[in-house]
Protein 1
Amino acid sequence: MNDVLKKVMGIADDVYKKILAKKNPSLSMPIRSLQNVSYDPKVGFFEAIGKCKARTLTASTVKTFAQTLLMMNESKKLIKTDDIATKREVYYISKNWGEALFREQPESDTVMDDFEAMMEVNREQLGFIPEEKGGEVAGNLVIIDKDVESGKDLKIDCTKFGSGAYSIPISVEHLKFETDAKFILAIETAGMFQRLVKHKYWKKAGCILISMGGVPTRACRRFIRRLSEAKKLPVYAFTDGDFYGYMNIYRTLKVGSGNAAHINKFFCVPNAKFLGVTPQDIIDYKLPTHPLKDVDVKRGKDAIKNDPFVHHYKEWERAIHLQLSLGKRAEQQAFAKYDLNFVIDKYLPDKLKNQKTWLP
Amino acid sequence: MNDVLKKVMGIADDVYKKILAKKNPSLSMPIRSLQNVSYDPKVGFFEAIGKCKARTLTASTVKTFAQTLLMMNESKKLIKTDDIATKREVYYISKNWGEALFREQPESDTVMDDFEAMMEVNREQLGFIPEEKGGEVAGNLVIIDKDVESGKDLKIDCTKFGSGAYSIPISVEHLKFETDAKFILAIETAGMFQRLVKHKYWKKAGCILISMGGVPTRACRRFIRRLSEAKKLPVYAFTDGDFYGYMNIYRTLKVGSGNAAHINKFFCVPNAKFLGVTPQDIIDYKLPTHPLKDVDVKRGKDAIKNDPFVHHYKEWERAIHLQLSLGKRAEQQAFAKYDLNFVIDKYLPDKLKNQKTWLP
């Protein structure tokens, strides 16, 4: 029996014993909000600071209490049979729970989030998977998966996909890795990824390319995290030069987000560095730009005012001020002004040589 | 020199000769609108009916004329060097065209669409690729790509990815295929795809699984089309039971869309059939449902009123009427009500045995 299963059974056992002893059973779980979060760069991610709420069985909590136990039971079954269920499927499963059924999926998601926080593991380890996947991989990496029938190792060589790529599955907990790469390059857009794959940039640079396709999904973040941790690989982020790239993509990748602090420790990539496009790159490379819109300006000002990550790194605060004063943003594709492969022949090699131009 | 390159050079040559002969050069291209479209099921897709516009060099057209020629020149270079450029990159390249530069990307996209229509090939053959990729593959299929350095064949075996999958590249023109599969199952959601992959459904059913992730991208549609054509494989679509699944996903996959008629012949999959979820399935399988919203009802009524595809297939017209009278929609995941793997053990096998329950 694995540790997660033991913990589920242990919690259920406590409830059962309390009932036999004619005491009120109770479930304790961390509060999930920004008020329960701190940022310490030594830890590397937004961290819950330990405030808990207790869900005690009363007349008013009886339905949620029953739903939590029924969801624990589903999780137990999934772990035992090595199966998976999407959040949406779990909602539909509840249609057979009689009066405990969920009327809308947000109710079901909330109970799942509470259960996940209570267990202190990411919900993929409980058998629950998100709807969306996302994340493509190419380069110096062999992924070791298991054949579900024979149980044998399956080695997937990411140098052998030609113009295609390996698509990251929704759950990545079971994957293992072999690699001699020097770093992971995490790329915002599918178009830039395709260019680097087409020209086998991963071979020239000795790296692993990962396409995030915008804000990385849970599976993509977890994959990068597990790979970088297992193989001690630094992660360099290459996004558009705008606040969306800096904060929504890079900051989420590196330290996580505020509203899901209980899982940041599984998903964040604390050793990630921001390679570019930086505001200084816009000046140094004389990039074609677009003017910042009001909403961009607001996003930048908000980051300076409210984001603990920006508060911690003065380099980021300065960079955001610089971008606001430029009043401009630039995209990864803007290097095409010089030559389609300028990014491969000049920009990336120059940046890799000079890490002083990066942001933390 | 390949045929596309010859055609580009031929058009350029005509313009050049006209100029030498002191005549006004002119470019002729199909009109791109619903008014220039017809649907014939023998053809299988929305088809341009041949109305053309001529772009003659005058004082008022000089800039667009120059841009078209410059874009033809970029395409020539891309084809010759076997390189690619995203629509966004092409827009940035124009920043070096002096007065002929594009101010906004929509201008650039329009010239590209005209050029594509003029050439009567899909723009991927001109070296221009979309920004977004999308589409995952698992199952009984070997994809043959080429190594860009050695030029040697690369065989990619889609039975050997474990829980992962092959990610379709942005351009698929060069791929070849080997397979003994009996059909292609094109699936709407990544979650359902992951379930079928996890349980190796492709092996049980002898098929190829393709995840469309909502409305399929150009690359995904072209991949399915090329694979089904090359290997004479039927394509079965499995989407949510709603108008978005029927029209935006399935109808686009099968016959294409109205606003891009000049490329439908490359992207549509005329032999596709709709396996489910049908409105009748909602009744027969007593599926959990959601009420239709006003916008859903409008979409259904619009399809009956305006869609040449629905006009042609009375079965679809009846199905849409049925769904409107039910006032409900159902999702692929709704089968989880019975059992997580009901869809694998019961629904898909039953449907495959009884094609009378499908829609055309």
Protein 2
Amino acid sequence: MPDLAESAPARGSARARRKARAENPEVAGPPYITRGVPPYEIMSEENLVRIEAMIDRILAETGLAFHDDPETLELWRKAGAGVEGDLVKFPPGMLREILASAPSEFTQHARNPANSVRIGGDHVVFAPAYGSPFVMEHGGDRRYGTIEDFRNFVKLGQSSPWLHHSGGTVCEPTDLPVNKRHLDMVLAHILHSDRAFMGSVTAEERAEDSIEMARLVFGAEFVDRNCVILGNVNVNSPLLWGGDATRVVRAYARANQAAVIVPFILGGAMGPVTTAGAIAQGVAETMAGCALTQLERKGAPVIFGNFLSSMSLRTGSPTFGTPEPAAGSLVVGQLARRLGLPLRCAGNFTTSKLPDAQAMVEGTMSMLSAVQCGANFILHSAGFLDGLLSMSYEKFVLDADLCGALHSYLQGVKVDDNQLAGDAFSEVRPGGHFFASSHTLANYLGAFWESRVADNDPYEKWVENGGLDAATRANQRWKQALADHEDPPIDQGIHDALVDFIARRKASMPDAAY
Amino acid sequence: MPDLAESAPARGSARARRKARAENPEVAGPPYITRGVPPYEIMSEENLVRIEAMIDRILAETGLAFHDDPETLELWRKAGAGVEGDLVKFPPGMLREILASAPSEFTQHARNPANSVRIGGDHVVFAPAYGSPFVMEHGGDRRYGTIEDFRNFVKLGQSSPWLHHSGGTVCEPTDLPVNKRHLDMVLAHILHSDRAFMGSVTAEERAEDSIEMARLVFGAEFVDRNCVILGNVNVNSPLLWGGDATRVVRAYARANQAAVIVPFILGGAMGPVTTAGAIAQGVAETMAGCALTQLERKGAPVIFGNFLSSMSLRTGSPTFGTPEPAAGSLVVGQLARRLGLPLRCAGNFTTSKLPDAQAMVEGTMSMLSAVQCGANFILHSAGFLDGLLSMSYEKFVLDADLCGALHSYLQGVKVDDNQLAGDAFSEVRPGGHFFASSHTLANYLGAFWESRVADNDPYEKWVENGGLDAATRANQRWKQALADHEDPPIDQGIHDALVDFIARRKASMPDAAY
């Protein structure tokens, strides 16, 4: 296991860590990654400047529409934008100037302080997939998600040393009323995990409920000064912000909490079919959303998000985990760094309906683009199948394992006297063997990250052990992880206050299906 | 034969190309890739210099042993190395100076000139996996490879638009005598494919047979002036060159053909368990092998190879497709570019025994490192399972499809007025739809690469179509591709000369099993 914990704060006490490591070598993940390798920069300065010019042109000439939120229009008017009806046009440079007040990195606090995450800069945070209405288990059996599934995925996230964040809507609990399910979701994150989490974004009052629950955990004053909850808000691409969305963005900013601003562009539908144009549009949309947070509360944390996809020529369906969005994400990373904002980009995407070879060739290409583009907060790191529509138990395990591999990958190749192995070359002669050398003995522990899902046995032993495929092993692992799960301890007073708050909120309104 | 590959011509006549494209949109692959994105450079100048200093120290102080080849020792002595017994020590700078005469890029000619490949520089050539004794089909059923399997894999390679090179020992034809099987292997490449290929390296006379067969195809004079065959030769790591290997290296160089020089380092066994040390050793070994080609024939083409792997702590088994070799390969690429030699590095590696999720998460991580590190000749691009021991029909199809995705990935994001889509933003207003815009209609063809193995249908349609996994679809595809295969035409005189040569060679010696 890489010695990531050295530079990043270790989780829990040294004694608890030793005990955990002895019982299960997996339980020693760091709270987040501090990368040792630079992002992958594929685009020339000249072409970046051309895309930025197109972004400025879209903002100034095409403009963005803001529906059903007069306060937002008023904020733009005061800030110097041109407002005609609900169409807003931004003079060149205006948004960049406003964005200068947003922090380039910030801490999102977890209720277990050892699990607080640093978002921005050289840091990388993995969070589970978000938003699927369906759930799959045992391969491709699909059904609607429930609150029990939701709790299971929170527990599975908490059990993985390679995820850092509990996420948000890990699946839609479709068995609960739409206007109340956010209360149960936020509670599940707080009770079954002690990591940082996300709140509701489907309506302003649900966002405020989520933030209020965070206040019960962290204290109102602490929340006003620190980020403890994120809200992931989508632009209604192309170039349209709905009033529900802008009110939610402003609710998070007003509370000094971080909105994640994300366009949703299926190339050829909600944006141009050409990648450079889709990037320009998405960046324009996101810049406006991020700037809005600063008008609502100067200095509030905000995350610059992006999302790219492609389309099947044969069927017109959206496709995911394909090469064009992977390359496009690398460019988005370059552009985001020039804005100095924390980045959310890509994730583990696939169109496959099974946790099979297609799922992981697409997922790995997509996930590598996320870490290589320099994304700081990687939502959708684990669980998606079926073109974002389904959360799969088996895929969750496979993806979390890939997140583990990326911990080691992002450390790169270390260079010091020990790593260069000069002593080994003095000891082992040409044609010799390093296995018993003192350098190998001193270094083999921790030299290589080891998957808990991969089968690395010789063929004969693999056959002897049943000849299982990776999805079957993943099925065994999530069932075991759920059986082993214990909720992290929580203060009884906080627990009761949350339960009481939820009961009052639920009693205050009838169930609704929207 | 004219060097048609200079301008990367399309395959076959325009008419044949149009016909092929109409019948099957897959048949339009380019003869090789010219990358539009730079390699991924993860290591600082300072650390690269430290590794280079360790390489020089290994070469000067530890030295390399050269067994059973007095002529090689004599070449080193004349060139100024210190030779004591069979241990050779290289003064700092000596090998770099010798390597200056090796070409930084060259053309390997194919018998169909449209398929000639350019190796080096910004070019990327995909070749199938090499050397497995076993073959798998229908998932994980493993058996020894045969010449029929060999021919099948050559045909499957030829059928894929996303591979560029027919490769070499695509599997071991274990049903043929060891001392004669090279004749049937080279013949299979020539008859069932019209792409560039590789010859035997198991003994000097087998290398010479292979080259002689190439002379029958291309003409002796042409072969003396142009590269038409590659030989992939392994160092006996650590730091030992066997006489069989150096004689084969010299045989290829003597004929002005390109040896591919490759260390085989399993970290902790044939090299240090630390990646920086393993890289230093591998580069030292490869530099010596490449330099030897220049002493044999100054200016002969040669490919600088590298191979990194890791080890399972739990079992001591080698592991493949893991993160440390992926990161290490990126560093090897940086070092190779400083030497100015064409690079072979990484490939599609996995320890999985099935074409499943494990196979493709490992394979994709490994294969992305190959293209991102700037490798020019990517051997092992398609087919491996089982830690290099097995060639899988289904995995071959899945991997070749990934090679297709990488064609698009390596183009990066293009930037011009059309790609920036300025006209589209004038046409489509905020909240509108791009689907029917004139920009989308003008650009959707070719906007996105499309997999022929992935299922991108909606869930319901996927169920209706049988709910197949990717491995099952791959099984259907390779069977269809073999059924559809037709050998490319060959001159009857060349055909007869090859058959006659093989008959004479086979008659000249008894069968042997070594």
